[in-house]
Amino acid sequence: MDTRDRYKELVNVWKNRLAKLCEAGKHAEERPEKEFVRSLESVLTELQAAKNYFNQVSDPDQVDLAIIYLTAAEKKYRMLLKEARLRGYRIPFTMRNLKERG
To answer: What global pTM score does this model have?
Structure first.
C-alpha cells in the first residue's frame, strides 16, 4: 500500500469517526455527564496521539496527514467544549492546559 492509498484510507476513517461524533451530538441531551467526560478524555488522548504522530514523521505526505489529524482532533475538542458550555458543565481543560500536558 503506497502513501496515497494509506492517506485515502485514513481520511475515510476520519470521515466515519466525524460522522459518528456528529450523530452522537444530535442526541447530546440524552447522553449522561459521565459519558460526556469520557468522550472529552478520549478526544484529548486522540489529540495527544496526533501531536506525537506529527512529531515523528518526516515525509511530506505524512506531515500533511498529521496536520489533518491535528486539525480534526482540535475541532472535536472545540466542539465538545462548546457542548459543555451549552450544558453548563465546568471543564478544567483549556488549550493552554493541554499544551502543558503535552
So the answer is: 0.57
